[in-house]
Amino acid sequence: MRLLWVATKQFAEFLGDQMVKDKGLVCKFIISAKPSRAPVTEQTVSVAIFSAEESVKCTYLHKWLKDLSLCNFNLRSILDWEYYMECLGSVIQKLITIPAAMQKVSNPVPHICHPDWLHHCVAGTVDKFKQNKVIDFFMHTTVDSAQTQTPMIDTELDMEDFGQDKILECPHIAILNQKSHKQTPEYN
Question: Are 26 and 46 in contact (CB under 8 A)?
Fold first, then answer.
């Protein structure tokens, strides 16, 4: 928001305060490479300056970029390409590399490194010494899948089953059918 405020202030500086007060103002801006080592808020330049006449453009770009030796006023020479590459890398991480790492897929964009916190997160999911939750040992089944399960094998027999016939039958599963109760009017 502060970036937009600075860009709007610059916009008002070369177009006049009256233009900024009008309703429906659209102020687009770029991040310039100059002034070097300045906060990003001081590196904003309103895009509207590039459509101004050459003398006005020269005057204000010298003032905003704080570089009087600047002679090339081409937009491409003024842009802070490192800033935009960093932003693009961040978006690629969010959309591609982080979801891939969480799904245990190798980095599909190798020139964009994973963030440090992601290595710890992924290492925690594949840690064989990690203590599991009790819920992880149980699995949710439906009635159909429970009835189609294969009968128990000999290794799953209980101690009490020792010595009995080895004819196995499907386990008995209790099925509960819930009926919705209609609310009847109460009679006094």
Answer: no
Distance between CA atoms of 6 and 16, rounded to whole angstroms?
A: 15
CA angle 21, 24, 29 (to 5 degrees): 85
Pairing mode of beta strands 29-31, 44-46? antiparallel
Q: Are 49 and 12 in contact (CB under 8 A)?
A: no
Which regions of 67-144 does DSSP assign to beta strands (E)? none
According to DSSP, residue 25 is labeled: -
Instruction: Output the tens digit of pLDDT for each of the chain's 188 residues.
Output: 566 667 677 767 766 666 666 666 677 788 888 888 888 878 888 888 888 888 888 888 888 888 888 788 888 888 889 989 999 999 999 999 999 988 888 889 988 888 888 888 877 776 677 777 788 777 777 766 655 655 555 556 666 766 666 555 556 666 666 666 666 565 54
23: alpha, beta or left? (left if phi > 0; alpha if psi -120 to 50): beta
